[in-house]
């Protein structure tokens, strides 16, 4: 298994990522994957023969014809289980098959796009957009008093460093656009390699060292105009700037520059990063409670000075990005400081990466990441549970005026749903955006809406912060729902069953043919033997 992952990481990784971002269902020898870009479900099947496993497919099954299967794919909301199973399977089954069949992700994609051209349906129809407007629940939210058309947007970090990248986010269904964390001057960051993705798709590491274009770039009129186009003008989509000064003085200077910038009114919020783990020799501020208080006190002073002067220098609402906390006492200490500064801090973004993690390459017997002795921030699906706990805990400890934005391991509508249930007002997407690109915002938003339709929720408030206590009744209901989903799944796989029966019948036929052949030869040999022994008998 280890060898397999190491030998063919790129193909396996591609497929894993592809599957991780799409709904899929599977049986023993088949996987069905929804591809929203084509009007079909993609089927991969494999059979076991003498020379090993042989991949059959991919095959496009029109949604129209495969109504049962299609509804099973749609109904399958147990993303976590299914996605994990599929991911695991992609290594054990699909990866070893791919070299033999010469199937690569690129071929797979082009295969899909050929069929897309032939498909009479438009792309929009091909995605699973519910037909009636009652099936489009409202995913808007209000964060620190700023209206967001969608509660899902990007985290500062991947794909947010340039105006071109920010423009793609602005043009997607993301509810806001947040810049890369800025320092006073532009900087190139740590040497490469500074990022790494686990082959199973569950975790990523980064130690980028804050590569960014400097504060002047992120608040310039040309960057904002290029990134936001029309969005920034009538506040259709908020533009937010993240700051990560290397010193307190740097942070104060950047705030002052925003306050006096002609673009100040186009910046809807500032997110102060108190959690960057990758500046060598600098502590993670959020873990140093004294320093955290000191910084917020100084920042409050800049806000007061500007907001009380008559020069129209009002600063936009402030949020702070926090590191993950793991201890109840630390949660309480951090919450006390934030509550003390509740007039300043309008939201927290929780969590940043789990700092100073390490991934080791067994072949080179060295870390994958070159700088900082390989220590780097951990992100991706593996950190979702820590994010959920941080959101839940902070929501219960913070003053109601401070919103909580959930970040960490979000890759599906279900992840967003869970974070909102835990108390998040909005959700940021980092690693999934990094891997899948800005189209993830559209997909995740649609998945969230589908869950809301199923649960008959029409707006975020219907379930925000409404996580229930564990109960026997709840656990029983959950078991029942899972059973129902399994049944739907089994009923919906006539093609797979028929084909697997055909495949096993063919194998049995070959077996019986061989057996008959062997028996015929055996009988012939025995006959010949018997006849010659008769001949040898002495005649009386
Ligand atoms: C970087 C990493 C972070 O986790 C963060 O919050 C800001 C910057 C980086 O290494 O570039």
Summarize the structure.
The chain is α/β, with parallel strands linked by helices and 540 residues long. The chain is built from 18 helices and 20 strands.
Provide structural commentary:
There is one protein chain. With 540 residues, this protein is an alpha/beta fold. Helix content is 45%, strand content 16%. It is built from 18 helices and 20 strands. The strands form 5 sheets. It has an 8-stranded parallel β-sheet. It has a 4-stranded antiparallel β-sheet with strand order 1-2-3-4, with helices on both faces. Strands 9-10-18-15 form a 4-stranded antiparallel β-sheet, with no helix packed on it. Strand 19 (403-407), helix 14 (413-421) and strand 20 (426-429) form a beta-alpha-beta unit. Helix 7 runs parallel beside helix 9 and helix 12 packs across helix 13. The relative contact order is 0.12. The structure holds 3,4-dihydroxybenzoic acid.
Please give the order of strands in the largest beta sheet.
7-20-19-14-13-12-11-8
* Low-confidence segments: 1-21, 77-133, 496-505
Ligand roster: 3,4-dihydroxybenzoic acid
Radius of gyration equals 29 Å
The number of distinct β-strands equals 20
How much of the sequence lies in strands comes to: 15-25%
Helix % is 40-55%
Rounded to the nearest angstrom, the distance between the terminal CA atoms is 73 Å
């Amino acid at each position: 298994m280890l060898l397999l992952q190491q030998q063919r990481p790129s193909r396996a990784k591609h497929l894993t990522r592809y599957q991780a971002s799409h709904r899929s269902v599977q049986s023993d020898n088949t996987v069905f994957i929804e591809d929203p870009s084509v009007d079909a479900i993609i089927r991969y099947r494999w059979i076991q023969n003498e020379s090993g496993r042989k991949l059959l497919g991919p095959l496009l099954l029109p949604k129209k014809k495969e109504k049962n299967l299609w509804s099973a794919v749609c109904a399958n909301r147990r993303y976590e289980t299914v996605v994990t199973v599929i991911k695991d399977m992609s290594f054990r089954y699909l990866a070893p098959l791919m070299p033999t069949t010469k199937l690569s992700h690129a071929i797979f994609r082009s295969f899909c796009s050929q069929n897309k051209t032939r498909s009479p349906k438009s792309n929009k129809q091909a995605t699973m957009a519910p037909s009636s407007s009652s099936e489009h629940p409202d995913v808007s939210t209000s964060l620190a008093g700023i209206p967001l058309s969608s509660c899902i947007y990007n985290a500062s970090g991947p794909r947010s460093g340039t105006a071109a990248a920010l423009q793609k986010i602005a043009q997607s269904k993301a509810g806001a656009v947040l810049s890369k964390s800025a320092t006073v001057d532009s900087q190139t960051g740590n040497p490469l390699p500074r990022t790494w993705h686990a082959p199973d798709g569950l975790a990523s590491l980064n130690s980028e060292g804050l590569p960014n274009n400097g504060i002047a770039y992120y608040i310039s009129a040309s960057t904002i105009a290029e990134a936001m186009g029309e969005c920034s003008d009538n506040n259709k989509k908020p533009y937010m700037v993240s700051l990560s000064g290397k010193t307190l003085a740097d942070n104060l200077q950047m705030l002052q520059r925003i306050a006096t910038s002609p673009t100040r009114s186009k910046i809807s919020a500032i997110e102060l990063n108190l959690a960057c783990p990758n500046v060598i020799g600098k502590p993670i501020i959020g873990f140093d409670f004294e320093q955290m208080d000191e910084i917020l006190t100084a920042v409050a002073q800049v806000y007061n000075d500007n907001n009380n002067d008559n020069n129209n220098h009002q600063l936009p609402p402030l949020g702070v990005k926090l590191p993950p906390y793991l201890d109840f006492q630390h949660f309480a200490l951090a919450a006390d400081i934030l509550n003390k500064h509740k007039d300043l801090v309008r939201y927290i973004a929780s969590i940043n990466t789990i700092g100073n993690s390490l991934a080791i390459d067994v072949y080179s017997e060295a870390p994958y990441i070159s700088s900082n002795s390989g220590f780097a921030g951990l992100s991706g699906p593996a950190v979702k549970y820590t994010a959920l706990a941080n959101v839940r805990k902070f929501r219960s400890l913070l003053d109601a005026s401070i919103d909580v934005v959930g970040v960490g391991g979000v890759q599906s509508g279900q992840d967003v749903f869970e974070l909102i249930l835990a108390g998040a007002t909005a959700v940021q997407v980092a690693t999934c955006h990094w891997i899948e690109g800005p189209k993830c915002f559209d997909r995740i938003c649609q998945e969230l809406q589908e869950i809301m339709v199923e649960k008959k929720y029409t707006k975020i408030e219907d379930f925000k912060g409404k996580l229930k206590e564990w109960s026997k009744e709840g656990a029983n209901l959950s078991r029942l729902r899972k059973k129902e989903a399994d049944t739907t799944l089994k009923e919906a796989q006539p093609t797979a069953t028929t084909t697997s029966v055909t495949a096993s019948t063919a194998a049995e036929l070959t077996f019986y043919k061989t057996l008959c052949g062997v028996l015929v030869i055996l009988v012939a040999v025995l006959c010949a033997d018997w006849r010659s022994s008769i001949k040898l008998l002495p005649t009386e």
